[in-house]
Amino acid sequence: MVVVDAECKFTMIDVGGYGKNSDGSIFANCNFGKRLKEGQLDFPEDAPLPGLDEPMPHVIVGDEAFPLQQNLMRPYPGNELTNNEDKKIFNLRLSRARNTSEDAFGILSKRFRVYQRRLEVKPKYVNKIVLATCVLHNFLKTDSMTILSEVIEDEAANSSPRNSALHNLMHVGGSFAGSSYLTREKFKNYFSSPNGSVEWQVRAVQQGRRYN
């Protein structure tokens, strides 16, 4: 598993997980996931969102495969979206934030064409190829924005709905979970407020598209 930051740089977490294991399971059992859950990562200090005074935590964005935590946001489940436009808007905005990861992996495959075909090497070498290309990507990142524009153009020309198997994890109990739900509620309210809304979001969710 790899974490991608806003500049499309890669941070190694875990490479070489079995395909049968879900992203959420791999994340929960890797050092990064454990340290995140225990609050041992060096996140920046809480800071207010634009237009607000209340400090909010910095968060990692994930899909439904990941657990909701104070510094890890996942979308609202589908059964909570019926007749709730604010939650649909939150899922939409979270989904768009995750596009950074999608674009970054597009950049990686554009730069290293080895990913555009089957890797015909022994499994022990696959992990090394992934690690090496991620390190080289960060080292050579001076022209990544040019490659990113090519990726976006390619995706626009060959866009198709993508379905993925989503693996739900059990909710974590206690006050920690309550704090996580409250943080998500605050982000949801912000995205639907005058300070945090964008003009196209209501139109997008009213078109009936589902974001999770």
Automatic annotation (TrEMBL):
Cofactor requirement: a divalent metal cation
Q: Does the keyword Zinc apply?
A: no
Keyword check for Coiled coil, yes or no: no
| A Pfam family annotated for this UniProt entry | DDE_Tnp_4
**Protein's UniProt name:** DDE Tnp4 domain-containing protein
> Which top-rank group of organisms is this from?
Eukaryota
DDE Tnp4 domain segment(s)? 1-138
GO cellular component terms given for this protein: nucleus
**Main location as per UniProt:** nucleus
Q: Which family does it belong to?
A: Belongs to the HARBI1 family.
Which keywords are on file for this protein? Hydrolase, Metal-binding, Nuclease, Nucleus
- Originating organism: Acyrthosiphon pisum
One Gene Ontology molecular-function label: metal ion binding
- Subcellular locations according to the entry: Nucleus
